[in-house]
UniProtKB/TrEMBL annotation:
Pfam assignment, any one: Aldolase
Entry's Gene Ontology molecular function annotations: 2-dehydro-3-deoxy-phosphogluconate aldolase activity
Source organism of the structure: Sphaerisporangium rubeum
Superkingdom of this protein's organism: Bacteria
Name of the molecule in the record: 2-dehydro-3-deoxy-phosphogluconate aldolase
Pathway in which the depicted protein is active: Carbohydrate acid metabolism; 2-dehydro-3-deoxy-D-gluconate degradation; D-glyceraldehyde 3-phosphate and pyruvate from 2-dehydro-3-deoxy-D-gluconate: step 2/2
Oligomer and partners: Homotrimer.
Length: 204
């Protein structure tokens, strides 16, 4: 099954303290969001991926902010079950294609999406979704490129997620709102589970 179909929302998480990784992932899964994108933006990100992969059986943990072939290898070695990138380069795409796991390369223009489609890639992260043009832009891309499905990410909030999810070319949306830094710092996993449950219910 595609990552785009696991849940309406993929939490994009920035793990600053690796001790929060497992309880955070448990809360997200309990709330109904199994696909979790751990961004490789912090020094403990790979360890967070490894711990979630080992200790949270209901989670489908992936790595985000994957920008280089070396990061592809490191993420898969850590246990990432999918890869997400903000954009795409030929070297990165070659590495992702050889990784053995599903991947969502990033694109923001018709030409970028067409270059990915030329490679047979029809599941794409639309980034940065809101600054690049939001719902209207994505709807317009769906005219000439109807076979491509997107996971828009960047600037999406619970209030705006339903407008994206209503588009036929959107599989799911990504966002950071599920795991507020304050909730993680305070160990408030109940709040994270509640945010996840609300997000999981966004599309019935
Ligand atoms: O790290 C990456 O690879 C990214 O693509 C960036 C994330 O998609 C945004 O950080 C989403 O952040 P929000 O706009 O707060 O939902």
């Amino acid at each position: 099954m595609s990552v785009l179909d696991l849940a309406p929302v993929v939490p994009v998480v920035v793990v600053e303290d690796v001790a929060t990784a497992v309880p955070m992932a448990q809360a997200l899964v309990a709330g109904g969001l199994p696909a979790i994108e751990v961004t490789l933006r912090t020094s403990c990100a790979l360890e967070a991926v490894a711990r979630i992969a080992a200790e949270v059986p209901g989670a489908v943990v992936g790595a985000g902010t994957v920008r280089t072939p070396a990061e592809v290898t490191a993420a898969v070695d850590a246990g990432a079950r999918f890869l997400v990138s903000p954009g795409a380069t030929p070297a990165l795409l070659d590495a992702m294609a050889g990784s053995g796991v599903p991947y969502l390369p990033g694109a923001a223009t018709a030409s970028e999406v067409m270059a990915l489609a030329e490679r047979g890639l029809t599941e794409v992260k639309f980034f940065p979704a809101v600054p690049a043009g939001g719902v209207a832009y994505l709807k317009a891309l769906g005219g000439p490129l109807p076979e491509v499905r997107f996971c828009p990410t960047g600037g999406i909030r619970p209030q705006t997620a339903p407008e994206f999810l209503a588009l036929p070319n959107v599989g799911c949306v990504g966002g950071t709102w599920l795991t507020p830094a304050g909730a993680l710092a305070a160990g408030d996993y109940t709040r994270i589970e509640k945010l996840a449950a609300e997000a999981a219910a966004l599309r019935g």
